Amino acid sequence: MATEIKLPSLGDGIDSADVLEIFVSEGEVVKKDQGLMELETDKATVTVPSPVAGTIVKLNMKAGDTLAVGAVFALIEAAAGASASPPVAKAPPPVAPAQPVAPAAPVAPAAPVAPAAPVAQSPAAPVVQRPAPPAPVATTPVAPAPVAPAPVTSAPVPILPAAAVEDDISYEGVIPAGPAIRRFAREVGVDLSSVVGTGEGGRINRDDVLAVVRQGQQAARTATTSHSTGLSASAATTAATAMASSKPTPASPGTAASDDYGPVRIEKMTKIRKMISAQMHRSWTNVPRVTNFDDADVTDLEIFRQSSKDDYAARGVKLTTMPFLIKAVATSLRHHPSMNASIDSENEQIIYKDYVSIGIAVDTERGLVVPTLKNVDRMSIPDIAQALSELSTRVRNNDFGVNDLRGGTFTISNLGAIGGTYSTPIVNVPEVAILLVGRTRRMPIVMEDDSIKPRSMMPLSLAYDHRLVDGGTAARFLNDIIMYLEAPSRLLLAI
Predict the structure, then answer these.
(1) Set 227, 281, 335, 466: catalytic member
(2) Mapping DSSP to helix (H, G, I), strand (E, B) and coil, where does residue 36 land?
(3) Which of 45, 185, 228, 269 is the most exposed, having the fewest neighbouring CB atoms within 10 Å of its CB?
């Protein structure tokens, strides 16, 4: 009897998700916990695993669909031998005919027939699907050699290392690559089925995809050279074919169409883009914002940071200015409660937060993501540097959950990493303020003794909700941040 597979809970407040990619097809045999599809929620992507092993009878979704939590998206027939499916991963590599006989007792009589007609049994046995996907091609030719001693019961034991390949590789049509790599391949226009993985167990990594892109670019150059030097048409055609197969240049997003003035491309808004749009509209229509601009002289801070960065680098942490800025903001928030609060308009209340959790706006390929550093006011600068490094790595690898994006009381947006000085950031409601940091630049500054010296100046833009935060409060808050940045010793001793 087919088992209904329902979309599980994806986190508090999430009632639906968009289907980004489907990893399986109808009629395919899957293992328990094998990834079935990749979903996109408000700000994160998740892979939905199969709760049972068996054969997919029906798929009730397609890429681009929006699924509600609890919706039945697939039917899986758990065959009588389904429980034996996972162990089969240990048997397949060299002994295709003999392996299925070992786990399934009723099929024992088929063992002798295997050596006599190995080719006939191969198509029928699901095990043959396994040799194709593994990346190392050398393994396939080696397989025939052990076939002779295969009938021996001990044969599967020496083959176990081959079974160390990722479980999802053991099934035909399943490409051994994680969600982040799949997305990257789509963006650069590379077909993963043509990529040879060099990772553990033949898994495809980012470098493998980039290698295909480079091959395509080389093929393009070869094709151009062939044309300019008058090489044979067949050589040029071969190079052009190689270039086309690797698709190194991503096509413009969306579906081709046209309007009254010319060609256009239409693309459905992603879940993330819809959420960003709704959040920005909510902020724009409800928050009367004001922005204060100022500069912090971080010359001494830079000297202090440069003298310490090698110590951090030895521990694998890149010490930037951000940990100091985060600490300065967190400490200042403690002294200005109204900057660390939110407005409950429905109940006409102000909610002051006794915890400080700062969201760090990150510009990703999928859109703006704001993961949160929890209770950052209780952390030391080394702790913040370590946590920020780990958080950045997780965001780059798309390895974070919905809870990582929640609970913030204040947001910092670092525009300086890209370029620019001042801007008017949008308050991330229900928070009441956001600080945007521009690129630090060297400027001539008039000192107290009227001398002019080159100093490193960090531009700061503080936007705030004027319903709760008054101009004087915002100015004092920004002055405190500047004070801590200009005197690192105060920051280290601050309470």
Answers:
(1) 466
(2) strand
(3) 228
466 assigned to active site? yes
Whether the CB-CB separation of 158 and 150 falls below 8 Å is answered with no
Query: With 0-12 CB in 10 A as exposed, 13-18 as middle and 19+ as buried, what is 320?
Result: middle
CA distance 212 to 155: 37
Long-range contacts of 157-166 (CB under 8 A, 24+ apart): 159/90, 159/91, 159/93, 159/94, 159/95, 160/90, 162/93, 162/94, 162/134, 163/89, 163/90, 163/91, 163/92, 163/93, 164/200, 164/201, 165/89, 165/134, 165/201, 165/202, 166/200, 166/201, 166/202, 166/203
CATH class of 175-254: few secondary structures
Does residue 342 surpass a pLDDT of 70? yes
Residue 155 C-beta-side C-alpha neighbours within 13 Å: 21
Query: What is the pairing mode between strands 349-352 and 289-297?
Result: unpaired
Residues 425-464 have pLDDT tens digits of: 999 999 999 999 999 999 999 999 999 999 999 999 999 9
| CA–centroid distance for 439 within its chain | 26
pLDDT at 12: 63
Residue 19, φ and ψ in degrees, nearest 5: -80, 115
d(CA 203, CA 372): 31
Query: How high is the pLDDT of residue 153?
Result: 39
Other Cβ atoms closer than 10 A to 474: 23
Give 391-423 pLDDT, tens digit per residue: 888 887 777 777 788 889 999 998 877 778 898
Helix axes of 299-314 and 471-486: crossing angle, nearest 10 degrees: 60
Q: Tell me yes or no: is domain 272-493 CATH 3.50.30.50.
A: no
The per-residue pLDDT for 16 is: 82
pTM of structure: 0.56
Q: Is the peptide bond before 371 cis (omega within 30 degrees of 0)?
A: no
Count of beta carbons in the 10 Å neighbourhood of residue 315 = 11
Instruction: Give the β-pairing of 2-6 and 54-59.
Output: unpaired
Task: Report d(CA 265, CA 495) in Å as an integer.
Answer: 55
d(CA 56, CA 72): 13
Q: What is the DSSP letter of 398?
A: T
Q: What is the pLDDT of residues 174-229, one digit of tens each?
A: 577 776 677 777 767 787 777 888 877 677 877 788 788 777 766 665 655 555 45
Query: Domain segments of the chain: what residues?
Result: 85-170, 175-254, 272-493
Cα gap 166→117, rounded to integer Å: 29
Query: What is d(CA 328, CA 493) in angstroms, rounded to the nearest whole number?
Result: 11
Buried b / exposed e over 17-51, threshold 16 CB at 10 Å, is: bbbbbbbbeeebbbbbebbbbbbbbbbbbbbbebe
